[in-house]
Amino acid sequence: MGDGAPGRITALVRQDFRLLARDPAPLVVRTVMPLLIMGFMLPLFRAALRADDVPDANGAEQAVPGMAVMFLFFLVNIVGFAMFREHGWNTWDRLRASPARSVELLAARLVVPLLTAVVQLAVIFGAGALLFGLRVSGSYAALAVVGVPLALCVVMVGMALVALCRTISQLSVIANILALVFAGLGGALTPQSALPDWAGPLAPGVPSYWAMRGFSAVILDGGGVSAVLLPAGVLCAFAAGLGAVTLAFFRADQRKLSWS
């Protein structure tokens, strides 16, 4: 590995990019699937938005950010696989024996998933505009202000689960459950105003709620960067909290199992 922490982290990041380039299929599927689902859900979302006093809505205003947020959280599995495969390949001990410290090994594993998540969001929003007529009445910069901390939050969910779970099966089950719960409570599957009474008080406790709130402020309300500072700040707080959980519970000497 390269000299110094930056060189060692860069070497690990390059390796992750090479592995991603060899097998991009999981990421392609996670990007294409939300677009396919949008085609089926668009009429339902159109009716929901028009019932929510958005008379000129075409449904993409809810479908695109909702499916983007929902499927972004399925990337948590990929974050976990990136860590667990080192144990499955019996290369984790070799990494630990290298000059790289545990915090460097963790930091290096953040880069590729984070960039992947940002690109996935950009592709889904761009395709949503081209294929489904998504109209953004606010600032595109504001979308990025929400999207980047959301992507970081997703990656940190994955890192926290890596720290807490011993097997890949545990991580996969928990990650999938969280993705669906976050989608439901966060307003990805229906406008937040249409959530059931019991879900309303719980919704602000999940990061997807703040992501959808920020995206809606830009897409539907025409907001700029100042309008999304609160949602973006809360997403950053979620990411910081998950980072603290990761550092508190991650043990480099704990053997992870890449099978049940």
Automatic annotation (TrEMBL):
Main location: membrane
Transmembrane intervals: 27-45, 65-84, 105-134, 140-164, 171-189, 228-250
Localization, UniProt: Cell membrane; Membrane
Keywords: Antibiotic resistance, Cell membrane, Membrane, Transmembrane, Transmembrane helix, Transport
A Pfam family matched in the record: ABC2_membrane
Domain ABC transmembrane type-2: 25-253
Protein topology in the membrane: Multi-pass membrane protein
PANTHER family in UniProt: ABC-TYPE MULTIDRUG TRANSPORT SYSTEM, PERMEASE COMPONENT, NODULATION PROTEIN J
Family: Belongs to the ABC-2 integral membrane protein family.
Descriptive protein name: Transport permease protein
